[in-house]
Amino acid sequence: MAPSITRQKNHARSGRRPVRAAWIACALAVATAPTARAADDTLKPRHAPAQAWSFNGALGQFDLASVQRGYAVFAGVCASCHGLAQVHFSDLTGMGLKAEDVLALAAAWQVPDGPNAQGQLQRRNGRPDDALASPYWGPAAAKAANGGVVPPDLSRIVTVYPGGADRIYALLTGYAPGTPQTGHDFANPYAIGHSTAMPPPLHDGAVHYADGTQPTVQQQARDVTTFLAWVSAPHQDMRRRVGVGAALYLCFLALLFVILKRRIWSDVRK
Ligand code: HEC
User: Which ranges does the record mark as transmembrane (predicted)?
Assistant: First the structure.
C-alpha cells in the first residue's frame, strides 16, 4: 500500500501552475536560443585544435630543450611587451640551466630600477633575484604603447587562459599570412571577438636557436608555449614523479596486506 500513497501525495503537490510555468520557460528558451547563439558565434573564439604536448597526460614531462628554446623566444620577442612578474631569474635553473648561465641571462636583461637622485627613472642589469617584470614603467605607459590595452602578465597564462596551451599556440600561429604590423586591431579567429590588439609577434627566423633547430613560426610558437606552460607549473614534473612513486608504493602495500591477511586467517580455515 505504501507506494500508492506516496504517489498520490506527489500528484497532489504538483499542481497545474508549475507545469504551465515550465512550458512557458521552455517556449521562451526555444524562441530566444537562435538569436543568442548567433550573437555568441561571432564573438566566440574558434576551437583550437589539440596539439601533442610533451607535458600533457598523467605521465607527461616537460621537454626541457623546448622550454629553453621557448625562453629564447620569450626574451627575444615577447619580453618587449609582456612581463613574467611571478618568475625570478633564479627560477630558470629549473629548466636545466646552471647557476652561472642564469647569472649571464639576468645580466643581459635591463630591469627597471626606479628613480635616481635626480628623479630620473633608471634601468640596471638584472640579478638572479630579480623578477622578469613588465618592460613598461606602469600600466599607463603599457596602455599608451599598445592602443589602450595592457599586455597581460604571462606568468600563469597557460593555466588561466581558456583553451590553455592549445589556444595560445593557435593564437600565435593564427594570423593570416601578410597581416600588417601597424595599428592595434588585428584579425585572429582564436581571439575573443576574432580581434586582438597584439600585432603578429612571430616571424620565421626572428630568433636564433643555439641547438640548431629551425626557428619557423610554428616551432617558435610551440617552444614559447611550452616555456609558458612550464612557467605556469614549474613543479609539475616533480609532482608527477612523486605521484608515480606513491602509486607504486600503494600497490606494494596492498600486496603486502593481501599476503598478511592470508597468513593471519590461514589457521581459521584449517
Ligand atoms: C608589440 C607588443 C607585443 C608583443 C611583442 C607580444 N604581445 Fe602578446 N599581447 C600584446 C597585447 C597588447 C595583448 C592584449 C591583446 C588584447 O587584449 O586585445 C597581448 C595578449 C597576449 C595574450 C593573451 C591573448 C588574449 O586573447 O587575451 C597572449 C597569450 C600573448 N599576448 C602571448 C604573447 C607571446 C607568447 C608573445 C611572444 C611570442 C607575445 N605575446 C608578444 C602585445 C604584445
Answer: 242-260
Residue 224 CB–ligand 1 contact under 6 Å: yes
251 is in an annotated binding site: no
Give pLDDT tens digits for 78-116. Answer: 999 999 999 999 999 999 999 999 999 999 999 988 899
CB 165 within 8 A of CB 51: yes
Vertex 189: Cα angle to 68 and 170 (nearest 5): 20
Three-state helix/strand/coil letters over 134-190: CCCCCHHHHHHHCCCCCCCCCCCHHHHCCCHHHHHHHHHHCCCCCCCCCCCCEECCC
Query: Beta-carbon neighbour count of residue 11 at 10 Å?
Result: 9
CB proximity list for 149: less than 8 A, separation 6 or greater: 143, 184, 197
Query: 212: CA distance to ligand 1 center in Å?
Result: 26
H-helix or E-strand spanning residue 111: strand 110-115
201 in contact with ligand 1, CB cutoff 6 A? yes
Provide the whole-model pTM. 0.84
93 in contact with ligand 1, CB cutoff 6 A = no
Q: Are 167 and 45 in contact (CB under 8 A)?
A: yes
Strands (E), 36-89: 84-88
Asked if 146 and 184 touch (Cβ cutoff 8 Å), the reply is yes
φ, ψ for residue 199, nearest 5 deg: -65, 155
Question: How far is residue 231's CA from residue 224's CA, in Å, rounded to a whole number?
Answer: 10
Nearest to 108 by CA among 124, 95, 88: 124
